[in-house]
From TrEMBL:
Its main location: membrane. This is Efflux transporter outer membrane subunit. One of its GO terms (molecular function) is efflux transmembrane transporter activity. It comes from Dyadobacter flavalbus. Belongs to the outer membrane factor (OMF) (TC 1.B.17) family. It is a lipid-anchor. One of its GO terms (cellular component) is plasma membrane. It is found in: Cell membrane.
Amino acid sequence: MKTCKRTYPILLFGMLLAMSGCKLMRPVEHASRISTPKSFSGQTDSTGIGSIPWKSFFTDPHLVALIDTAIQNNLDLKMAVQRIEMARSNMLFAQGALLPVVAGEVSGGGRKFGDYTMDGVGNYDTNFSENIDNDRRLPAPFLPDYFAGFRSTWEIDIWGKLKTQKKAAYNRLLATEKARHAITTGLIAQIASIYFELTALDTELDIIRKNIALQQSAVETIRIQKEGGRANELGVQQLAAQLLNTQSLEFNTQQRIVEYENNLNLLLGRFPQKITRNKVAEQVIPESVQAGIPAGMLKRRPDIQQAQLEMMAYYSDQQAAQLAFLPSLNITAMLGFNAFKSRLLFSPGSVAYNALGGFAAPIFNRKALKAAQRRSEAASLEALYAYNMTVLRGFEEVSTSLKKLDNTKSIAALKTQEVDVLQQAVTTSKDLFLTGYASYLEVITAQRSVLEAELNLTNVQKEQFLALVELYRSLGGGWE
């Protein structure tokens, strides 16, 4: 009865401890996730370009070949694959924590007990007993101890703490896979953007070289005019200076082409070499571009999916930190052979086994557990805010790209008309100059204006393609 009376306070203390732990299991309240609009700029078509595979979206065979090479060789993608493997290892580690730990053991040791201790006296006295044979007599004064068998420890997941940690590791594994998809979409968009930059630079180079030829003709003409007394040296110098400036633009454009080609080769995982490409005039902008609905973007865009999975992982970490306050049930066991004489180690009489189970609850280290809980709660809320920020950024990028497509289309139409007018002005200025009705300054101005207008038109056309590529990426296209 006395033993039972002593047991009741211990059980009562354990129950109170468990109840206090259950109080701490209440999860922190998360604010509502961000509420998204129903459509993009009034678009109602549910099918957007983000669902088109990249090999169908990009029609230029040279660009498709470059993207395919990058997906095979890009080093950032290769590193992302290794991060996935690390996350998979973490998940396997968390999964293994649910199972018993069984270790094979072969050990040997010994001890010399003091002569004036209970063990020393007991061992000495035992050897004089008539109830033991020679095999059971204790070696003296050094007592060996040999063991061969298995030892096991197992934490029973009665509260689900280990399963919650496994869930967090699994969500992080999925998040690393989405991160690889995000790198893929970014890589495809980056390659396409550089490709269109190169096609635009090729066009700029052609325009510059065409203008160089025109300006060389103008310089030769004014020199003839000077020899005939119809022009002066100042006019020759002005037109010659303009020619030199345009020739410097040619070398500057060639250098930019080299830089873009080298950047593209780096993304392809190869050393610098020439990039085969088509002209910008051979590229086609679709007449109408559909973004789809926001729900499609949320499902397709990998960085949003990654942020959501990381948010779920941190929330599981928070739950595991709360469950750490509850008592844990641990079981230890041993099965094997144990003897103090090596020749008797594997005899039937040396078989030994034990099993022990018990609850252990934190008492004096609760401050450390509370600190871990607060840290996990803060990390969980941070992940929620990061998810909301990613969604906002996605909408901002889609909206900006849609508007940019519309505006650059209008600008390109106006710039085309401007180039036509200025090209006519160049012809008119040359005719007037030859007949003496225009000065060399008017010829210079007309040539400079048409060069700038043609370069601006090329830049606007390039911006159209870049906006289309950015819209495709921002809608989550390209990771299949």
